Amino acid sequence: MTERKRTPWVVGVSGASGTPYAASVIRGLLAAGEPVDLVVSRASRLTLLDETGIAFRDAHWRDDLAEWLARGADGKPGTFAAGDLSDVRYWAAGDLAAGPSSGSYPVKGMLIVPASTACVAGVALGLSKDLLQRVASVTLKERRRLVVAVRETPLNGQTLKHLVALDEAGAIVLPASPAFYSGATHIQDLVDFVAGRVLDAAGVPHGLYRRWEGELGSARPRA
């Protein structure tokens, strides 16, 4: 019997605020049985350190990722159970010879969560200044699914032009914009809504948020 070829989703984490979004997306992918290739930009390490206190290190990435994924959106350690990371592969942001830098490397697509405006500009212009941007360019040229969860406000005209360019190139532009109709009672609910919408765009099943069913007030607690 031929062994099934591993075909992961690439998750790119840029330097924008919103590292809990990335953690929720990764947890959702793994819960759905989807393998993950992870690229963490240099700038995002500073954001991760600031938002969680976790120093993400290449040589200890598995331990650092486990700690990150176990942390809640409010920063509380041990909020989530330590999951199985055996199907996660990590690629350093400076490794332009990494597997996903080539179109011949099999992946389902790429999710950039969160995407900074600098990352958006780099991908829109095809700069490929690091592995994250290179993989995004490869994803577009191979006509694979690219979801860009931009996290910035307000947006200036140049960034809006870059987002339009990404949309025209085939990417899905998904602002990190939480909704409140799903009955959020905790910051984690708002984070999971955005992560769930990212997974929706990727076609990955999940149960991260309550979906709209056409009934007003259906998400509010019953008296």
From TrEMBL:
Highest taxon listed in the record's lineage: Bacteria
* InterPro entries reported in the protein's UniProt record: Flavin_trans-like, Flavoprotein, UbiX-like
Q: Specify which residues bind FMN according to the UniProt entry for this protein.
A: 15-17, 41, 151
Q: Which UniProt keywords apply?
A: Flavoprotein, FMN, Prenyltransferase, Transferase
Q: Please indicate if the UniProt record lists Transferase as a keyword.
A: yes
The record's EC number reads: 2.5.1.129
Per the record, what are the reactions this protein catalyses? dimethylallyl phosphate + FMNH2 = prenylated FMNH2 + phosphate
Class of the enzyme per the UniProt entry, highest EC level: transferase
Q: Which residues bind dimethylallyl phosphate?
A: 181, 197
Which SUPFAM superfamilies does this one have?
Homo-oligomeric flavin-containing Cys decarboxylases, HFCD
Q: Which Gene3D superfamilies match?
A: Flavin prenyltransferase-like
Q: Name one Pfam family in it.
A: Flavoprotein
Tell me where in this chain the Flavoprotein domain is found: 9-201
**Would the keyword Flavoprotein turn up in this protein's UniProt record?**
yes
Family label:
Belongs to the UbiX/PAD1 family.
Looking up NCBIfam families in the UniProt record yields:
ubiX_pad (TIGR00421)
What does the function comment of this entry state? Flavin prenyltransferase that catalyzes the synthesis of the prenylated FMN cofactor (prenyl-FMN) for 4-hydroxy-3-polyprenylbenzoic acid decarboxylase UbiD. The prenyltransferase is metal-independent and links a dimethylallyl moiety from dimethylallyl monophosphate (DMAP) to the flavin N5 and C6 atoms of FMN.
Q: What is this protein called?
A: Flavin prenyltransferase UbiX
